[in-house]
Structures are given as structure tokens and as C-alpha cells.
């Protein structure tokens, strides 16, 4: 369900939480190396997070890189996934495939309703988890950078 840039962005956020707590700007190659990712695959996710205001970027200076723009306990996983993936929606089959013969009504289609309910539950669960909690599952021994 999630695209690779979204997966990379979620993984990178764990290290960016460490960077926030330690006042360290992390660049894309450092993040990619830590998680054995391709830096070219990670970069679009970092750009999307900057555009969404979740990350700040710093060019030049002694330490160029990225840092969270707000405390990690204030950023939800839902915000991150929406920034990377867009909004979750389930459209009726007639909306998506205009030529299909479907007798369902958009508001009462049982199939669409099941998926809408699942997406609502996913949104709720993602909004209940902060980046702080997400990063708590990782050990940062050795001081990071």
C-alpha cells in the first residue's frame, strides 16, 4: 500500500528524531548510510517532508542537512504519511472507472464502505502515534553521527 519514498521517509524520521534531540542536522547520505538505503531513493521523501513543513533544510554552513521543524512528540505519523503519500481516499468504482457498469450508489456501496471504514481506522491509528513514539523502537548506540 505504501510507496517506497513513503517507507524511506518513515524510516528516516527515526534518525531525524535522534537529530532533533541532539541538535544535529543530518544530511541525506548519512541517513541513507545508516539504514543502507539508496540516497537517490531517499531524497524525494526528504524533499516532500520539507515542502510539508515537517522538516527544515539547511544548505551550506558547517553542517548542511535536515532537522525536524517541530518537537517529535508534536508530529504524528499521519502527518508524515500524508506528506509523503497524499490523502487516503476510497472512491466509488464509478468515479474511478467511468465506463464501468456498476449499480452501486456512491454513499451506500458496501464494498466502498468497507474500504472507507478501513481507511478511517488507519487514519485514527496513525494520528495516535507521534514520531517520538515511532523512534522509540530504535536504539541509537554509539552517538549516531
TrEMBL record:
Keywords: DNA-binding
CC per GO annotation: cytosol
The keyword Protease is annotated on this UniProt entry: no
A single MF term (Gene Ontology): DNA binding
PROSITE patterns: HTH_RRF2_2
Superkingdom, natural source: Bacteria
KW Kinase (keyword) present: no
InterPro entries, alphabetized: Tscrpt_reg_Rrf2, WH-like_DNA-bd_sf, WH_DNA-bd_sf
Protein's name according to its UniProt entry: Rrf2 family transcriptional regulator
